[in-house]
Amino acid sequence: MSASPTQAASAEALDLVFWDPSGYRWNGPGDWNQWRYIPDGLGGEIGVRFGVSAGFGTFDWNLGGVAPHGSVKDGTGTSSFGKNEQANMASASVNAIRMQANKQFTGARNNFTVEFDFTRYKGSKVGGKDGVAGANTLIGVSDIYAGLTYARTTVTITGTLENGSAVSPAGWKLYNGGVAPNTAGGNQPSAQLSLANGVLQGTNRPAPGGQANSIDTVMGLVRLDAAGCKTLRLSYDLYPMPGSFGPRIDNSGLYVASAFPRKPVEPPKAVEPPKAVEPPKAVEPSTPAKPVPPTVVIKDPGKPGTTTSYTYTVKNPDGSIAGKGCFTYETPADGGPPKLVAFYYHDNVVGTINQSNVQTFYFDPEGDDKRFTFVTGTPAKGICSLTADTTLPAQLTGIGGEGPQSYLGKTIDFPKLATGTTTTDESTSIPAVDLVVVIDSSVSMKDEANALSEAVTAAIEVAKTKCPSDLRVTYLGIEGTFKNTRFDTTVKTYLTTTAKADEAALRGRKKGTVEGGGAQEDGARAIEDVVAHYDWRPSAKRAVFFLGDEAFEGGGADIDKEDIAAANRAIDAAKKGDVRVHTYLGTSGAKEKQRKALEEEFARVASETGGKAFTSKDALNGFQALLEKVICGSKTSTSTTTEFCCCQEYVEQPEAKP
User: Is a pLDDT exceeding 90 seen at residue 220?
Assistant: First the structure.
């Protein structure tokens, strides 16, 4: 079958190795213009990113499209591979990145770009140079519209050479995919491809064997020239044929392959008569082959003359630890790139891998390409090679042997600086705490007194059971008491009898000297007197818990200047006496605006003395937690840190049980 005028038949026999996009997945809109690196099948990688042509919007995959994804043993590519002008090519697996455009012709949705980065490409494996794609590199496309019926697609190829100049497609060759196998009904994807001036497009006639209404092309491979491309850019321009704006699907494939020229089979040589047998010569020892040095890139130079270690873990899909690893590098004192001096990884599939197994190592902890990658050979126990990359959806991949399936869904925690082992010895000190609970003894508090007494007492008892404590609690009423409650002693009685205070020195007013229940509602004065005259134990933490339902100076629902001044005096006294004041505002007949002002004033007294404020809405629920903080013994600890040992010991030591 003859080639078209724009292409040359492949007389050269080639064995192709396609890239491995099995781990490639489109994660969402954030993948536009983001580089992703795919194994090239040679031990290196090829970068690929999808973008949008200038003046166009991004695709909306909800309009019938399918986002880019890896397709190993790609169906369309496999079925068309080797036909027509590709007759002398062979491959074990034809792999593609496949995507499906939207079903509608909309200017903002139908143009896109694909870029390749070959700076990590192992071109030396196919007779070229590392970092560039040369004469034994092929790129391919499939399933693009030829323009007979519905639509037309052109793919313009540009790029840069190793020296940064623009590529020239003059020396490139196109091998057309030919005719796909017939299918029942529908159009046959069998249009010819042409390549002229770097523009790849379908012709306006069917390929041999195709049907007259064919619209698609199959797979076309473009073989580059020896100039060596560092980057390539494919610009897809999709547009409808005149008069056609109906829905359609463009399911396109993208291929990269590396070619190994096949050596011709030599004819058998004529059999020569046997020569006389010579005595055997002494066997000279063979010179062992030099091992290929690993590729190591570490973009964290650190300080000259320092050694740095990092550790990392591999986790199962359920979050449990599957394996762990460690690596160490040295930064030379006289400058130069860091050197990898230790590498260990261990899991139950492969056992332990060390630095001698490392083939590729890449680490950038902070740059734009924040990434941790390694490729290793492994002991015979598990698999033949292991690939890890924190930037890929399939972060851990095993090849060959018994264990590849064991790495499905595993993830790698990004390496962390290795730290030493810290041992902590704890000791507990039990502080003395004096707590005085003071209640407004006016009639309005009578209904709450018993409940408050029980609640406060219960909270204290629960807190005491949760931690060691040395607590003394005193319950006092302001110029009055409540029967059958803890509040059976007045502030004045306790201070003048038990605490031996001079009554003349007390600020509290006597019952009956103030209108209404005023003296019994002198909350601020009671706080002042307790702070100044209570028999606090030396070195004890001091706290007052005041319970009331009206203003601090003589009660009432309104906050006036006298109330604020009295509260300020109580705050000053508490600060000087190192006493924290906690407050509780009970229920009252105050209106909403008055109630809000009371809450704010009670909260001010508490916050300015380092205490907590509660209201009847809290029902003292939070007081228990507060008491635990006040009365519980405080723990002190002494920590001893042992420097990080070494990578091998870290990896091989068993995990500490929780």
Answer: no
